[in-house]
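Predict the 3D structure for this chain.
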Amino acid sequence: MRTGIVIVAAGHGVLRPEVSKLVEYLDSNRRVTIIGSVARSISSIHQAVQVFVLNRRFSEQVRQAIPPAAYDSLRYYVEQPRRNGAADAVRHALPLLLEKQCTEVVVVFGDMPLWRAATVTRLLHMHRRTNAVITMTTVTLPEQHAVTIDVLERYGRVLFDASGNIVQVIEPGEANELHCQVVRHVNPSLYVFNLQWLVENIDSIEPQYRQDGYGEEYHLPRLIPIAAQQGVSIVNMSLRDPEEALGVNTLEDLSRVQEVWQRRTRRNTKKNTKSTTTPRGGGWKRKRRSRLSATV
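Done. Predicted structure below.
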């Protein structure tokens, strides 16, 4: 089996005039961009077929902000010609993934730079172990106020049946007050799909019509009730760290994500410095990096 990875980076969001939000920097040294951090998060998957879905308006900006791929991974860029939503963006990547004989596909959004490589790897491990059709992350909203809760409240509500199976995601514009009060699980949109199932079902997604002049939009969460009605396996992986689910849509979001990213970097730097200067058991402690092969 071979893993495809689709990075949905076709949005037109900006925080500065005519500058894609995906090229905003996370660090004070202006070295790591939002989309660059996303690219790092998928770097633990060996021999993957990476497909970045871009828009024509910001294509060159975004491509220049992405670090080189790992030596054993293939990277491609495709364009989404119209603003038809994330599911449509993924649809444009499918022919390439089929051509490269992928059997599973990770879908990650380009404006969510806090995913850890270990989280993406763990999700893919779970997908393979359970032989699921869809494996997705969820976040449980804390009962008490937290710094992340106001952002997570914007995400779609995940509904379970009496047996604990995911059956639907109520998207933000459709959630009523009862959903917001009672349903405490949200969907941060990190998925793994069985590729053949995705190809066979993505055209079944009903369009959502907008009032902004850009016509219909196709949303990935619409695949959840389709899978549930078919009775195929949808597996849930609950996030250990809700901060990983933070994305960037506003300047306030960017500031929050920068703070988290820089705090992590300081902590990791301190940990690495300690591990290289403190001998243990007569030798030096070395941290082994976990890598997951995209081919089996």
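Confidence is low (pLDDT under 50) at residues 282-287.
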